[in-house]
Amino acid sequence: MIQRIQTFFLAIVAILAGSLPFLFSIWTDASGTEVYAMNGIGIISSFMASAGLALITIFMYKKRQNQFVLNRLNMILNLFLLGFFVYRSLNLSGETEVSEKGIGMLIPVFSIVFLVLANRAIKKDEDLVKSVDRLR
Predict the structure, then answer these.
(1) Comparing C-alpha atoms, which of 115, 83, 116 is closest to residue 16?
(2) Could you give phi then psi for residue 28, rounded to 5 degrees?
C-alpha cells in the first residue's frame, strides 16, 4: 500500500537525493567557487542511485523484506557518499585557507535518518503481519 508512513519517508529521501544536490552547494573552495554535485560524475551518479533506490523501494510495498534490504543498501550508499565528502573536505590539496563546507554535505545524513525511520516502519508492518498469521 502506497499510503503507509514508510512511503512518505522514502519519498523524502528521493526528493533529498534527487533534487537538492542541484540546488545547494556541497562545498566552496578557497578561490570562492561553489562546487555542486553536477561538477563530479561520481557524486551525481551516487545521488541519483540513492534517489532511484528510494523510488524502487516505494513500489515494492508487497515485498517488505526486499524493501528492508534495499533500504539497507541505500544506507550503505549514503554512508559511502558521506565518507567521500568527509575525506574530500579534510584533504583538499594545496589550500592554505580553510574551504567552506556547504549544506549539500548534509544531504546523505538526512537521507540516512529518513531511511532508518522507513526501516523501522517496515519492520513494524512485518511484525504486525506475522502476529496476525499466528492467530490463524
Answers:
(1) 115
(2) -120, 125
The mean per-residue pLDDT over the stretch 52-68 comes to 92
132 vs 28, 30, 119, 121, 129, CA distance in Å? 54, 60, 20, 17, 5
Q: Give the C-alpha separation, 12 to 6, whole Å.
A: 10
Strand order in the sheet with 100-101: 34-35, 27-28, 100-101
Under 8 Å CB-to-CB from 3, ≥6 apart: which residues? Answer: none
pTM of the shown model: 0.86
Burial class (CB in 10 A: 0-12, 13-18, 19+), 108: buried
CA distance 99 to 92: 8
